[in-house]
Design a protein that fits this description.
InterPro entries: ROH1-like (IPR008511). One of its GO terms (cellular component) is membrane. It is a single-pass membrane protein. There is one protein chain. Helix content is 70%, strand content 0%. The protein is an all-alpha fold and 352 residues long. It has one domain. Helix 2 packs parallel to helix 9 and helix 3 packs antiparallel against helix 9. The chain is elongated and about 80 Å long. The N terminus and C terminus are likely disordered.
């Protein structure tokens, strides 16, 4: 995808997003506090859903699918909150809108990187499917074809994905400006900014976990320090510590990958490959048929996981994209769109 040059800008820009000027020390009215508290309570419940009953659930495809689902829900809630607060788009500064579009492109780029990796993994499981089909026969020719497919799997799964590496650098940029603004804004602006902060933390956490899982490295893992003043801070810190420690432990333990389903497939392939090559005496190993059956089950689980997670990543892509489209539509109907905004939007059309 085409993407504009990254700038040193915050994930959600806080540089005076509203033109409305309010006296210093503006306080949030009780009715707006209720709205904010309800939003943050829902955010905390979503974070709690990601705390697994067992560490073995972490970085399984069902867990990652749930994480992406909660992210979609939170971003949809932000769009709903903007509507409920009735903050006219025409009151937003052009610079804030410009940065919003730029940052949303970064999120779309991250989605495309994840989709690229899931497509790559899907190609791998198709190679496994081909190998399993050939192993249904006992002919040496079919076994050779199975070996070729497994060679293709090993080569593909052992290679890197440049798009995931670029995704990590984007996350690094977004992580640089995560703190809330110190300036006092309008009451509605303060509510929106605090709600956005929570979603920003959730987004960076989920996306950095995905980047670590897909890249096979903890280089871009987020360690976000959230102040205790937020009602959801304790829940988030517990979740972050649990997930980060588990991922770090898996890498330090020499695991091929931190993804559960992928690790099972890989270990089974390693066990099966020398058998069908005739390197290992079948008498000293488990029945090849049993191992083939285990690989078949593992491949099916991997395939289902890839399919479900791919759909959720696509959903998140469109949540971000429709948010952009809605804002652009409001701008066209009530304000002048700057050239820079249009330029960023043309880049998004390439993504679509």
């Amino acid at each position: 995808m085409s993407r504009p040059q990254d700038a040193n800008r915050s994930f959600f820009p806080f540089g005076n997003p509203f033109r409305m000027i309010s006296p210093k020390g503006t306080k949030i009215p009780p009715q707006l506090l209720l709205v904010l508290h309800a939003f943050e309570a829902t955010l905390e419940e979503r974070l709690k859903k990601l705390i697994p009953k067992s560490k073995d659930e972490i970085l399984s495809f069902p867990w990652m699918t749930l994480a992406m689902q909660t992210l979609c829900e939170s971003h949809n809630d932000i769009k709903t909150l903007i509507t409920e607060l009735e903050v006219p788009v025409c009151d937003w500064e052009d610079k804030w809108i410009d940065v919003y579009f730029d940052i949303s492109v970064k999120l779309l780029d991250i989605c495309n990187a994840f989709s690229s990796e899931l497509s790559r993994l899907n190609r791998g499981q198709l190679l496994l499917q081909c190998a399993l089909h050939n192993l249904e026969s006992s002919s040496s020719e079919q076994y050779e074809r199975a070996c070729s497919s497994l060679d293709g799997w090993n080569e593909l799964i052992g290679s890197g994905n440049p798009r995931i590496e670029k995704c990590g650098s984007i996350l690094d940029d977004l992580r640089e400006s995560i703190d809330l603004p110190k300036d006092k804004k309008s009451a509605k602006g303060m509510v929106l900014m605090q709600a956005m902060y929570g979603v920003k933390v959730q987004t960076l956490f989920v996306c950095s976990v995905f980047a670590a899982a897909f890249s096979g490295s903890t280089k871009h893992m987020a360690v976000l320090d959230v102040a205790d003043i937020y009602s959801w801070a304790s829940t988030f810190k517990g979740l972050q510590n649990l997930v980060n420690e588990e991922i770090g432990g898996r890498f330090s333990g020499g695991r091929f990958t931190v993804l559960n389903e992928l690790e099972v497939v890989n270990s089974t392939v390693k066990e099966l490959y020398p058998i069908i090559q005739g390197v290992v005496d079948n008498i000293e190993t488990e029945s090849p048929a049993k191992i083939v059956g285990e690989l078949g089950k593992a491949r099916e689980k991997l395939s289902q996981g890839i399919d479900l997670l791919s759909k959720e990543v696509e959903s998140f892509f469109y949540v971000v994209l429709t948010g952009r489209d809605a804002l652009l539509s409001n701008l066209r109907s009530g304000a002048t769109v700057t050239d820079s905004i249009l330029e960023v939007n043309r880049d998004v059309q390439i993504v679509k």
